[in-house]
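As a warm-up, study this chain.
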Amino acid sequence: MIDSSRHRSRQPSSELLVFASQFPPMGGGGVIRIYNFVRNLADLGWGVTVITPDPTEMIARNRMARDVYLAEELDRRGVRVLRTPPPADPRALPRVPVPSSGPLRTPMRIVRRLVAEASALRDVDAIDPLHGWRELAVASALQLRAQGYAPAAILSTSPPHSVQYTAMLAAQAFGVPLIADFRDQWVGNPHPMIAGDSSVRAWANRRQEEAVIRQAAMVLTTTEESANEFANRYSSDLLERICVIPNGFDGAAWEGIDDQSDPDHLIVSYVGTLYPPRDVRALAEGLQTALGREPSLRGVLRLRIVGQCEDAYARALRDVLGDSFEATGPVSQLDSLHEMANATWLLAILHGGEGASSAVPGKLLEYLAAKRPVLGLVSPGAAANFIERMHLGMVVDPTDSDTIAHALLEMFADWKSGSPRFAAQLPGRDLVASYDRRVQAAELERVLRRVG
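Now compare it with the structure written out below.
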C-alpha cells in the first residue's frame, strides 16, 4: 500500500475514510464527482483518507486520461491517498467450459453449471474493473485501524458497484456509519452487464446491494428518479435515509475560463467518452440528410468528440464530415472545460439502455456551466427532463435520423440568425449556481454531521 500524500499541515476537525475505484490522477467522468467531494470537504476542514487501486495499469489498458492537475490539487490540501496494488485482470483468469443447457440430473452437473456461471463473472472488466479488489482494500482499512486511525464515517462511491460492498465490510470493522453514493443504479440498471447478465450474477448483485442498502446510514443518489427506484425495490421507509445530491459543475475551475467561441463556425462538441451502447449511426445518417438539404452547412459545421471514441464511431462520422470531424482522444478536466467554452452547441448522447430513466450525467451539469445550448440525443427519462426543465436546448430521439436532421438544420438556422434564441433561453446565474459542487459538498457535510 502506497501513501501518495504529503504531511498534513493542519489538524482536521473530523476524519473521513473514502473508498473509490476511480480517483486522480485517473481522469474522466467517473472521477469528477468524488474528486470534488473530497477536495471541497478538505477545504471545509475535514481530514480525508482515500483507499483506491493504483490506476497506472487501468489507465493504460483502457486508454483513459491521466489528469495530474487533479491529483496535485488534492495533495496541496493534504488529502491522504492510499493506493493498493491493482486487482488481477479478470480476463487473464482461467475459464471453465460451460456445460450444455438441459436437465440437471446429477449434483456434479449442477456444480459444473454454477462454476461455469461464476467463471463468466471474470469477463466484466469493462464494467467492474474492481472485481477481486475487495481483499486488498479491506486489508488496507484494517491496517489503518491497527495504527489507531478512527474515521467518523466511511464514504463509498460507485460504479463500479463492488466498491460499495467493500466499504460496507470496512464500516463494520471500524464500527462507523457508511454513506453509500450511487452515481448510477446497480440492480436497477438496465445495462445487463451491471445488473447481472447471468442468474448467478443477478442473484449475487441483489444480495450485495440489499446488504449495502440495509446497513448504510445514508444513501446518496444523483436524481429523485434514482431515489424512488431504490425505495420501490426495498421499502418506502428507505426514503428517510436517501439524500439526493445531484451531479454538478466545478465552479472553481470555471472561474478562470472565458468565452472562446469561434463566430465563423458552428462548432458542435461532444465532451466525454463515446462508447456502446451509445450509438452514432442515427447521428451520422441525420448529418448526411441535413447536409443534403442544406449544402452550405458543410462549410461551417465542425463536429468534435472530445474524449475517447470508438474507432467504428469515428469512422462513421468522418465518412460523412471528412476533415470537419475530429476526435481528440482523452483530455484533462481543464482541457475539457476549455473545449466546452470553444463550442457553439454541446452534444449529449444517452440511450435508454444506459439508465436514462433515472440518470442525469455529470457532463450535462458542466454543459450548464458552459452557458451553451445543448442538443440532447437522449431517450425519455431524467436526463431529457433536465434538459427541458432547464431550457438547455433541444431533446431528440437518439435513434431517429430524420428528427436529428431537422434539429441540426434548426440549430444552423438559429446560429445564422445572429440573435440565437436557444442561447437567450438558458437559465440564469442563481439557478446555475445551485449546482456548484461547492454547494453540494456543503450538503454532504451536513449529511456527515447528521449520521456521525
